[in-house]
Design a protein that fits this description.
Blueprint: E1 7-9, H1 12-20, E2 27-31, E3 45-47, H2 54-60, E4 64-68, H3 73-79, E5 85-88, H4 94-108, H5 111-124, E6 135-140, E7 144-147, H6 152-159, E8 173-174, H7 178-184, E9 188-192, H8 201-207, H9 214-217, E10 221-223, H10 236-257
Parallel strand pairs: 1-2, 1-4, 2-3, 4-5, 6-9, 9-10
Antiparallel strand pairs: 6-7, 7-8
Helix pairs in contact: 4-5
Length: 258
């Protein structure tokens, strides 16, 4: 048995890590956004990203509650008054995503399993396809959001050789300026809709007056391939699924450019 027998994880990334290092049987509650791996969807839901049912927590009486820093910090402060709460730092780089595996492993005393997973993730990082290009990424997080220098998303795009037009902005996230995006005219545009929502690329591009942008004219506007969080999820599958997907986009771009 691990260090904790009754874990509540309100972080989808931490939940995925717990599963991958053999701690799934000790999870007694998760957030509604904990969907990786598939079995995590069957765990008892006690809240969402920044809210929680205090009644359900009282029934469960967890040994520990795991939460991620950033937006949910106010929830961390509230829950810390009554429970043992561990707040993990939100990664700002791809390396930070891998390091989160070790930090979770240290906390639950599954160090060997965490290190094995950490090394597997490092070995799985793809070699970026050669070529220079720029990108714009937009996630629907209750409204359009893009990302600046302090985000792991920006780091991933830069590492894979398709830096964001907002890469130099000293922010984690920002509300995009549509006129700035149009003038920057990136080579590739990526949209991620909210979970379980669809998105019309043509509708958005026409509505914003972006149909003359080269990404649209050259067929380089993409929608993320999952109905669940894709770029928004900073668990191990970001490294195993998202980075190869970025590389595929770049591969197509380079091939079509020749």
């Amino acid at each position: 048995m691990g260090k904790y027998s009754k874990i509540v994880s309100l972080s989808p990334a931490v939940t995925e890590i717990l599963y991958m290092i053999g701690e799934s049987d000790n999870i007694v509650g998760t957030s509604a956004f904990c969907v990786h791996p598939e079995d995590a969807r069957n765990k008892r839901k006690v809240g969402s990203y920044g809210t929680v049912s205090m009644d359900l927590l009282s029934q469960i009486d967890p040994d520990v509650i795991f939460i991620i820093s950033g937006y949910p910090h106010a929830l961390y402060e509230k829950l810390s008054q009554s429970y043992n709460v561990v707040e993990f730092e939100l990664p700002s780089t791809v390396a930070g995503i891998a390091d989160l595996v070790m930090r979770v492993g240290f906390e639950v005393d599954s160090i060997k399993e965490a290190r094995d997973l950490y090394h597997r993730l490092l070995r799985s990082i793809p070699v970026p396809v050669e070529g220079d290009m720029t990108s714009y990424i937009e996630l629907d997080l209750g409204g359009p959001v893009s990302f600046g220098a302090y985000s792991y998303i920006t780091d991933a795009l830069t590492f894979m050789g398709m830096p964001s037009i907002y890469a130099d902005q000293r922010k984690e996230w920002l509300e995009p300026d549509f006129n700035f995006v149009r003038k920057a005219d990136p080579d590739v545009i990526i949209f991620e809709p909210k979970m379980f929502r669809s998105l019309s690329v043509e509708g958005i591009m026409k509505e914003r007056g972006w149909t003359e942008m080269k990404a649209y004219r050259n067929g380089n506007v993409y929608v993320t391939p999952s109905k669940y969080d894709f770029f928004a999820h900073h668990g191990p599958s970001f490294i195993t699924d998202v980075l190869p997907w970025i590389n595929k986009i770049k591969e197509n771009f380079v091939k079509n450019k020749k």
